[in-house]
Amino acid sequence: MSRRLDRKKRTLLTEIEAVLADGYRTLSVxxxxxAIVVRGGFPVRIEGQIxxxxxxxxxFPRSYPRDIPLVYELSGRIPRIDDNHVSGDxxxxxxxxxxxxxxxxxxxxxxxxxxxxxNDYFLSRVYREQNSVYPFGERAHDVLGIREYYAEELxxxxxxxxxxxxxxxxxxxxxxxxxxxxxSRRPLRKCHMPKLVELRDKIPRxxxxxxxxxxxxxxxxxxxxKKLFN
Amino acid sequence: MSxxxxxxxxxxxxxxxxxxxxxxxxRAKRDEVEKVLRAGFPDSTPTIKYGGSHAKGTMIKESYDxxxxxxxxxxxxxxxxxxxxxxxxxxxxxxxxxxxTPKTSALRIEEGQGTERTYTHVDVxxxxxxxxxxxxxxxxxxxxxxxxxxxxxKTHVHHIHDSGVRPAIRLAKLxxxxxxxxxxxxxVLELLIVDVLKxxxxxxxxxxxxxxxxxxxxxxxxxxxxxPANTNNNLxxxxxxxRDVLREWAKMTLVDLEDRxxxxxxxxxxxxxxQQELIARxxxxxxxxxxxxxxx
Lengths: 230, 296
Fold this sequence. Notes:
The complex is a heterodimer of chains A (about 230) and B (about 300). Chain A is about 45% helix and about 15% strand. By secondary structure, chain A is an alpha+beta fold. In chain A, strands 1-2-3-4 form a four-stranded antiparallel β-sheet. In chain A, strand 1 (about 25-30) and strand 2 form a beta hairpin. In chain A, helix 5 (about 160-170) runs antiparallel to helix 7. The termini of chain A are far apart. The mean pLDDT of chain A is about 90. Chain B has about 300 residues and is α+β, with helices and mostly antiparallel strands. Chain B has 13 helices and seven strands. Chain B has helices at about 5-15, 20-40, 50-55, 85-95, 155-160, 165-180, 185-195, 205-220, 235-240, 245-260, 260-265, 270-280, 280-285; strands spanning about 45-50, 65-70, 100, 105-110, 120-130, 135-140, 150. In chain B, strand 5 and strand 6 form a beta hairpin. The longest helix of chain B has 20 residues, at about 20-40. The chains are: A alpha+beta (about 230), B alpha+beta (about 300). The interface of A and B includes residues 87, 126 and 134 of A.
């Protein structure tokens, strides 16, 4: 098992080094144990032209590519406040994982992650510094952002529908005779099965489970607070 | 065009011409601040003069402020008995006309209210002379571990002004502002450059900068800085937290310089304008892109 992991890491390292040598020479691999860590200047490009740069550290977890790399900005140019889409631990919230399929499809590699997801994040930052808005829009914070995304997919922002859908997305198997998530009481196979299949193809179970747990935790907190103030 | 000539052209764009409206406005603001201070302390005769980059000759247009020192004589208690009282009273006098934000030793002056507040580019540094015929002063350290700092503005000004490497200092400040966009205490940066380039004064500007970045890249962990006015002031604590950041920026700069030349490090105004226009056109060039999210 460990020999297979080492080979996997070696393959990833080779891929990373090739990407750095071709377009990201100001970045370098600074550590390979336990995780591969890349550090240096990330060039921000528009149509191939470098318009700015950020000092970053990018950590490839052992679970890559199932989990996306963690990106940190090191100079302090991006203040760690919610509006800047930076987590409490300093990781940049490059995208909502549920819609990863849209920006960093399965099978795409490091080059696409750097060139699309990370570049877009910093481009948004640079544009916002000049114009006070995000050029591609932004997701709302926390569970509201999750709801925003699923509302676009499902055509409703009803929490119950979203929670039921996430529940199905996080299960290993879902019977076609289960009640449809939309609340129609019809079985899935006679209702929104095609949509569920489409989403299951795009969104990993673990990602759906994490979003579901986040929503349920927020709902519990809301109920507790309501009790407290009533 | 040689590299040194290109850098001189860059520096020229960062120099205030004598009749420059910005410079005139700055001096007018400084005179206005002096009037406010003198009116606020009618029984005192503080020494009010330029400090900082204006006096040192290291000002750059990209990011400038005018440090105005306001030093009271040792026996003058018109502004208060203690350093803290002097700091607070100077702040209160200025607050009658401006929005004042206390920094560690300086008072940042702004005008307007709320979101309309604008920086006047003037900072006032209150202090008190230690001896009658000495330029040594005590400064109050707002919120710092040691509440007072002994220093000498004249010594600082001469140390930098007469260092022989002012152009390199100005370019390094520009590099910090426009290339790296990172925070690094200006005075510590100046002292580092003076120290690293003490044997390089006759070298060309491009050679000086490369030497500075290479030294930072390779030896930042062993570099120290000393306050020329007071060797007891431990300025290295400012360096400690930022060594890694400075090293990484120096590394990045040297690679970028090798790949893309000086234009990549210091863009002339026309090139900068093109970049800004490209950024402004982003929504039409790329209508869709990754939407950032925040987990909290």
